């Protein structure tokens, strides 16, 4: 007898939840958020504009950027978190083909005074400065020849999570 009562109760609860319109609203919001999280590259007449962010969660907003060979790439890089440059600094470092990403990350550790950019290296195509929370910078570079290029954040310990591929078509 008790079991039947419980069943009846839970059925009533389910029905009342289903009738609530709030569930639908939540779904809409999450779809909008996902779209905002990964804006597409904007292309126009040989110029590609890229918006890349780094967060307090130690993540880039995109792990793949697609450009055309020879394009002028205007990359805006923003630290959308709140943490300081000393504890959660982020940069964008584009590496030449064939660079061992893990080894490069190790080498970068030794260059704290240079914002973790190794000096006397020929492994870097281009890079931004190191940013703290709320900061923003912009660099312009010419897309290299066709192929896949690794990009990373060279702050200590970040390369494992903060890496992506620049695909040049
Ligand atoms: Cu970082």
TrEMBL record:
> What would be one Pfam family of this protein?
Copper-bind
Membrane-spanning segments: none
**Keyword annotations for this protein?**
Copper, Electron transport, Metal-binding, Transport
List the CDD domains: Azurin
Q: Where do the Blue (type 1) copper domain residues begin and end?
A: 55-169
- Which PROSITE patterns does UniProt cross-reference here? COPPER_BLUE, PROKAR_LIPOPROTEIN
Is Hydrolase set as a keyword in this record? Answer: no
Q: Which PANTHER family match?
A: AURACYANIN-B, OUTER MEMBRANE PROTEIN H.8
Output this protein's name. Azurin
Instruction: Please name the gene that encodes this protein.
Output: azu
């Amino acid at each position: 007898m008790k079991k039947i009562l419980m069943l009846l109760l839970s059925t009533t609860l389910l029905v009342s939840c289903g009738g609530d319109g709030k569930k639908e609203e939540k779904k809409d919001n999450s779809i909008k958020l996902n779209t905002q999280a990964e804006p597409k590259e904007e292309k126009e007449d040989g110029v590609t504009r890229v918006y890349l962010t780094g967060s307090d969660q130690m993540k880039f907003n995109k792990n793949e950027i697609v450009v055309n060979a020879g394009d002028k790439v205007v990359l805006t890089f923003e630290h959308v978190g709140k943490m300081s440059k000393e504890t959660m600094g982020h940069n964008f470092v584009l590496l030449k083909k064939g660079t061992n990403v893990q080894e490069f990350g190790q080498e970068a550790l030794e260059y704290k005074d240079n914002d973790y950019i190794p000096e006397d290296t020929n492994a870097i195509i281009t890079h931004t400065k190191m940013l703290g929370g709320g900061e923003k910078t912009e660099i312009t570079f010419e897309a290299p020849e066709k192929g896949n290029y690794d990009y990373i954040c060279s702050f200590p310990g970040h390369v494992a999570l903060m890496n992506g591929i620049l695909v040049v078509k």
